[in-house]
Specification:
This protein is of the alpha/beta class. The strands form five sheets. The protein has an eight-stranded parallel β-barrel, surrounded by five helices. α5 runs parallel beside α6, α5 (94-106) crosses α19 and α8 runs parallel beside α9 (210-219). The radius of gyration is 25 Å and the shape is globular.
Length: 607
């Protein structure tokens, strides 16, 4: 039987390699050729695309769906749906889930791949039922991971539950690239033997094993595989479509897809990818460490960008070593959105603050209260107590505790929402959703800029980060890996000198800027520390990592106790309480909602 090919180039491929930044305008010119290939489906929505459209690209994600539906009339469109999380980072009430699925189906979606980050199937039931009610294809996805508890028998049981729930097919979702060829063969054999459903395999190429795994899967009865057109394949993305088509050519599983036409599509996307060079992760090559740290493709790409923005890219290895420790302490959740962000952000905080669990995100607290579902493993009692004290842990399906939301959401967003889809955009991301809708209404939507290949966002020539230095007859290769935060007017830079890591402290006396025209020699004053005072007093409230203030919980004159939350900051899409370091009275607030903050700044003063 011909293997069914799902190409991920319009969603997961660019989510994994360029932080989900591909714009609809760069998809449309190639749609006519994509539509003629004969793919089983094109994955083009869901995952992080909804967030990226609203947050960065300033595109209406619903308009993207409608536009691609029109441009791809002969091809099934597929999306990734996070069960009760939908496309956000919390559980939504059932009425929101039902409305979201119904509107998505009406706007043109054909296949819904539905998963729960904890494989807690209570959290996908409402989504599956809604998809079936809409007359669309419900594909249940098993999040593959490894731990002492995640056995072959456990995964087969999940498949049987999904079958009984009414799923039309089952996907093995190997989001981190953990499968090996032998395990793939065993797992597919077991699922095919027990289920009368098509089995699909989704695996990332991070460890260099995905293509072999997919071939073994098809040999052992899998109906279909996920691939990415070659110019967006490999690394933390997926096996190349062209290569897998060639591998099955002439076999009983020949896909029948035209290799020459696929190559033309690959050439198109090779040129498109160059536009997004600024979002290329430094961790997109082969990396077998994933077999240990289990970090999925999309997460490692975004994690790299986040650490780079914080001047802490040199600490990536520490974070990757911390992630498995946090995962074990949280009961071995599979690392997929949102649990990958929950575990990953907490690991970053544990590393950046140099004290494990000194700062705990709100999402980790909710997770430990059972509000994301039930993990397969036992949670560390010590970590749970540090996070939530003696609070009760819920045992029911988390959404059972949520009242209906749609009426409230419609009232909250008001007339800025012109459709049910707009209300759902607001539901997914209240702050950035409202901001997007307001800017759309006023005609002031501006997407983030794309840097020219040799310039920064201001049109200035980019600083060189890799070069050779000749001194006293010797030549040294210098690579600037990152920079730290300025303290006492000195900034640390992290270098690699002939492969040896070094830290140097730079105290700028005056800085030389390269102008938009490339002129050198323009001088500017030494960098200032910013509007906020430096945190020097025990009563100064600071943040442990760069982020954005999303809420201010106090006012000048309020009395607070040490440990009371005073601010809520968002970093890496996770919210963290910033607490009062001392007991006293709020005497000054130096930050506003929506402002970016960095460590060492005094955000609030307490006397």
């Amino acid at each position: 039987m011909a293997v069914k090919i799902t190409d991920t180039v319009l969603r997961d491929a660019h989510q994994s390699l360029i932080a989900t930044r591909m714009r609809t305008e760069d998809m449309l010119p190639i749609c006519d050729r994509l539509d003629k290939i004969g793919y089983w489906s094109l994955e083009m929505w869901g995952g992080a695309t909804f967030d990226a459209c609203v947050r960065f690209l300033k595109e209406d994600p619903w308009e993207r769906l409608r536009t691609l539906r029109e441009a791809l009339p002969n091809t099934r469109l597929q999306m990734l749906l996070r069960g009760q999380n939908l496309l956000g980072y919390r559980h939504y009430a059932d009425d929101v889930v039902k409305a979201f699925v119904a509107r998505t189906a009406d706007n043109g979606m054909d296949i819904f791949r539905i998963f729960d980050a904890l494989n807690d199937l209570r959290n996908i039931r409402v989504s599956v039922e809604a998809v079936k009610r809409a007359g669309k294809h419900a594909q249940g996805a098993i999040c593959y991971t490894t731990s002492p508890l995640h056995t072959l028998e456990h995964f087969v049981e999940l498949g049987q539950e999904m079958h009984a729930m009414g799923c039309d097919s089952i996907a093995i979702k190997d989001m981190a690239g953990l499968l090996t060829p032998d395990i793939t063969a065993q797992l597919v054999q077991a699922l095919v033997a027990e289920l009368n459903l098509p089995i699909f395999v989704h695996s990332h190429a991070t460890a260099g094993l995905a293509a072999m795994c997919q071939y073994k899967a098809v040999e052992n009865g899998a109906a279909g595989i996920d691939t990415a057109i070659s110019s967006f394949s490999g690394g933390t993305s997926h096996p190349p479509t062209e290569s897998m088509v060639a591998a099955f050519r002439g076999t009983p599983w020949d896909s029948g897809l035209d290799l020459t036409h696929l190559q033309e599509i690959g050439f198109y996307f090779r040129e498109i990818r160059k536009k997004y060079h600024q979002f290329e992760s430094e961790f997109t090559g082969l990396d077998t460490r994933v077999q240990v740290n289990q970090v999925p493709g999309g997460m490692i790409s975004n994690l790299s960008n986040q650490l780079k923005e914080q001047g802490a890219l040199h600490r990536m290895n520490e974070v990757l070593e911390e992630i498995p420790r946090v995962r074990k302490e949280l009961g071995y959740p599979p690392l997929v959105t949102p649990t990958s962000q929950i575990v990953g952000t907490q690991a970053v905080l544990n590393v950046m603050t140099d004290e494990r669990y000194k700062t705990i995100t709100n999402e980790v607290k909710l997770y430990l209260q059972g509000k994301y579902g039930k993990p397969l493993g036992e949670v560390s009692p010590q970590v749970r107590h540090m996070a939530i004290g003696n609070e009760d842990v819920i045992e029911c399906r988390p959404a059972d505790l949520l009242p209906e939301e749609m009426d409230r959401l419609r009232k909250e967003i008001g007339t800025v929402a012109t459709s049910e889809e707009d209300v759902l955009t607001y539901a997914m991301f209240p702050d950035i959703g409202r901001e997007f809708l307001e800017h759309r209404q006023s005609g002031t939507l501006v997407p983030e800029p794309l840097e020219p290949a040799d310039s920064d966002t201001n049109g200035n020539r980019k600083a060189v980060t890799e070069f050779n230095v000749s001194m006293h007859g010797e030549t040294y290769h210098i690579l600037i890996n990152g920079k730290g935060y300025t303290t006492h007017d000195k900034r640390p830079y992290y270098l690699s000198i002939d492969g040896v890591p070094e830290e140097v402290l730079v105290e700028p006396l005056e800085e030389i800027s390269l102008g938009a025209e490339g002129e050198e020699g323009q001088r500017r004053a030494p960098a200032q520390s910013g509007k906020r005072p430096r945190a020097t007093d025990p009563g100064h409230v600071t943040t442990s990592m760069p982020g954005t203030i999303v809420d201010i919980l106090v006012a000048v004159g309020d009395e607070v106790h040490a440990g009371d939350p005073v601010l809520i900051a968002e970093a890496m899409k996770m919210e963290t309480e910033i607490q009062a370091p001392v007991t006293g009275v709020i005497t000054a607030i130096h930050v506003k909602k929506g402002e970016s903050v960095t460590p060492d700044e005094a955000l609030v003063e307490i006397d």
